[in-house]
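Q: What residues go here?
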């Protein structure tokens, strides 16, 4: 009988342990106000007030049950909604929804949030009714949002406070002209509310452990594509295709370095060359110049779970037509579907001028 009861107790203990709470969550509500940065003189007429709005987020905490959570100091992930009144009847109001990560520093008192999502604007450009809005050419926008806040949870029961600065960027990444976009630099003040009475203890199995990671050089092949338009309003949207091949070498468990090449087939550029040859004869263009470009690039990949952040700096080695300069930047996300296949969503730009959002699929061998 004692042996039977011992087995029952052991099974009960295992079941309780297996069902131990591994996550907790909280919400935060913030008011913000600030200014639209003058990143382009052509939008000066659109800056005549102090934008304000609210930021509402749901956050899921991690406690180190997966190794990547410990490596990045137990980040949060979740979803954010932003309402922004741009204080200008021409610009209207923006509503946006994001996926985000929160990273912590200074004994978890300093929080850095980075978010990517989609926005909706109520009053985009219209050549007849709203021709002054050269910031937003479409109702649907791409949006990036970053926040740096000092944060203190559970000051009063489940309530806490946070305050700091935020940057909210809206544009359509040249999906359709005009596309000057806006960058709002704001200050925010908010409250947090923990949804759980108790939280698990942090797992520290990697403390003091030197993680060794070795992997041979891998070869990546990617096909990217999308739609974009030149800066000439009404010139039309055209598809583009980018073929990329690059090698990457993991230097540690978090990072890899990349070196590769891109071949760009951008139909909008072909049409833009023809337009320039007709509209500006003094530039002595025939209209038959090659619109294709070839670039080489170096890059970095930061691995976070099955998602990674990629940054690449490129230079056109084949550049028959001068368009926005010979250097380009690519920043975006890479999501591994399994050990070999992955999907990507990246933004390619020349400095602060976006050329297009690229959606792609690739293989890593």
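A:
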């Amino acid at each position: 009988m004692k042996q039977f009861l011992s087995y029952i107790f052991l099974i009960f203990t295992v079941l309780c342990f297996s069902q131990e709470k591994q996550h907790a969550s909280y919400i935060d509500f913030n008011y913000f106000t600030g200014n639209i940065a003058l990143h382009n003189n052509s939008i000066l007429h659109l800056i005549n007030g102090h934008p304000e709005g609210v930021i509402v987020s749901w956050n899921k905490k991690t406690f180190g049950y997966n190794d990547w959570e410990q490596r990045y100091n137990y980040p949060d992930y979740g979803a954010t909604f932003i309402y922004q009144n741009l204080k200008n009847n021409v610009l209207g109001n923006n509503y946006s929804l994001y996926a985000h990560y929160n990273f912590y520093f200074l004994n978890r008192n300093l929080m850095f949030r980075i978010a990517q999502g989609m926005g909706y604007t109520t009053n985009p450009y219209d050549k007849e009714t709203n021709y002054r809005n050269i910031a937003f050419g479409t109702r649907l926008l791409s949006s990036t949002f970053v926040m740096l806040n000092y944060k203190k949870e559970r000051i009063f029961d489940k309530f806490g406070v946070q305050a700091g600065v935020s940057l909210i960027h809206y544009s359509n990444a040249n999906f359709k002209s005009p596309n000057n976009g806006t960058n709002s630099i704001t200050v925010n003040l908010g409250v947090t509310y923990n949804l759980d009475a108790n939280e698990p203890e942090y797992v520290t199995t990697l403390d003091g452990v030197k993680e060794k990671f070795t992997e041979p050089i891998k070869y990546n092949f990617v096909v990217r594509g999308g739609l974009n338009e030149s800066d000439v309003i009404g010139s039309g949207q055209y598809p583009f295709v980018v073929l990329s091949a690059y090698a990457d070498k993991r230097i540690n468990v978090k990072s890899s370095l990349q070196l590769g090449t891109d071949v760009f087939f951008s139909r909008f550029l072909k049409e833009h060359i023809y337009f320039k040859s007709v509209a500006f004869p003094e530039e002595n263009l025939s209209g038959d110049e090659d619109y294709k470009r070839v670039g080489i690039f170096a890059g970095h990949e930061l691995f976070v779970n099955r998602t990674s952040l990629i940054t690449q700096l490129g230079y056109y080695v084949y550049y028959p037509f001068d368009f926005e300069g010979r250097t380009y930047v690519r920043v975006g996300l890479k999501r591994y579907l399994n050990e070999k296949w992955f999907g990507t969503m990246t933004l390619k730009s020349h400095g602060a001028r976006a050329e297009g959002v690229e959606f792609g699929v690739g293989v890593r061998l």
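A: Context that may help when evaluating the design: The longest helix spans residues 2-18. The domain at 24-194 is CATH 2.40.160.20 (Porin).
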